Hints:
The protein is built from three helices and two strands. The relative contact order is 0.12. Helices cover 45% and strands 7% of the residues. Zinc ion binds next to loops.
Amino acid sequence: MGLSEYLFVFAFFGVPGVLGAWLARTRGKSPLVWGLLSAPFPFFIFILWFQKPTQEVPGHFRKCLTCGAVYPWKQDFCTYCAAKSEE
Ligand SMILES: [Zn+2]
């Protein structure tokens, strides 16, 4: 394969793979597994995008100590019960 073919393959599988891996990381899932799934099937990126993590992911999602809901890290109160976060 020539360089342009490698670039094409990278754009075709590498970009969705990296995107899937990064999204998986922000949602507390395995970046390796989801990266490998997303590379040939970019559809998995959409699944990940709408997924919420089941546990706290530092820097990305907090878990509410009062009701157990998961909400964005940037927010300082729970989306569901409005309880304040620890910090
Ligand atoms: Zn809550």
